[in-house]
Prior knowledge:
By secondary structure, the chain is mainly β. The chain contains four helices and 25 strands. It has one domain. It has a 21-stranded antiparallel beta sheet that branches. The protein has a two-stranded antiparallel ribbon with strand order 3-4. β3 and β4 form a beta hairpin.
Amino acid sequence: MNTNIKLLIATCLAAASAAPALAQASYSGYYLDNYTHRYQLNPAMTDDSRKGFVTMPILGNMNIGMHGNLHVSSLVYNVDGKTVLFTHPDVPESKVMKNIHKSNELGASLNMDLLAFGFKAFGGWNGLTVSTVADATIGAPGSLFSLLKEGVENRTYDISDFGMSGTAYAKIQLNHAREIKQVPGLKVGAAAKVLLGFANVDGYFNKADLTLGQDTWTARTQADLYVNIAHAKFTYDYDDNGQRYVDGIDMDNIGLGGFGIGFDLGATYKWRDFEFNLALIDLGFINWSNTMLATTDGVHQIGTSDYTFGVEEGEADATWDKMKEDIEQLYQLQDGGDIGSRTRSLRTTLNWGVRYTLPYYRRLTFGMVNSTRFNGQFTTTDFRFSANVNPVDCLSASANFAAGTYGVGFGWLLNLNVKGFNLFFGMDRTLGRLSKECVPLNSNAELNFGMNFPF
């Protein structure tokens, strides 16, 4: 079991590391007018106070993040001054399981624009962005942690809600935004993207359950792993019965393995002191030319009723050996070959919200934005409430509170603007202590940094 779980995890993380970043702007700057990269969250949100900008190559918009609703402090505890795992007998089961969700998720992303610039022309604002996109997510059911904490109980454990997803690609993006003169206050924007795929991995446990009874037990598994990495090959090992199985991936020569297109659509509407906004980001797909499949090739099942422990010399040992081989085969993935091209949709994000400008001090605004990212079992949503201030022309800042799939968090952004230079720094999620008895670390943090040259 461990070998193939490690294979799934390693492959998924490899997809995220095949390219350096996930190109995305900071939600903490969503309502800061002079924050350069808002157009990546809504293509209608552009900085019209300048003629244009050019980013510092690679350092123009960098984001490093990890996310999840399963915090490190849910798995690691402090007992009598010692750091122990949640399985430690002195950590009460009730305390552990109240921090475990029905569906638990951990993920990571690295974010970076390679080059970007914007300018006014053609009746509106235009932009070109070259960036890389990569992230990886692992999901595990709460029943898995229940099994590990409870030990062997006489019941059925369904751990089929276990999956992994990872992707990495580069994109070339063209933006255009303009005001609609026929509808005062309305501004629309759009982006078209060419996508160059490096890697995509999807792993599923379609069936994985363990039924433990007083005198008998039964285990059933079915798993599939889809790998789209150009020039990559499976590596193999053999079990004690001489059966070959997939135990890793050789990725010495990674190249382009997929091509696709994508679109962003957005709009804003100003009415008195309110501004409403709506955007769909990453509508599109990537077609991967080759797909390697590793699979259990159907449902594997074993139970204690399948074995007879005889009293004759050697019969018991032979039965134990057969049971060991069958258990190993429950989780061994076989090479399913190259099954051809495979099309995967992008992880579309819906952003919508409203901003209110204080009438008596128009440099202060309050905003709410909801961001929902559609990604199958890993779909997430997040509400963010912010206070945004621009006390002087050269400085703006945002402080915000977020709540959603990944729990609650605090975000902030400082944005410095002087003639010919822009620097921003902040965090959409800030690391912090969850409780006194827990290790002071959660699984949500996102650092945002960038340097730009406005003109």
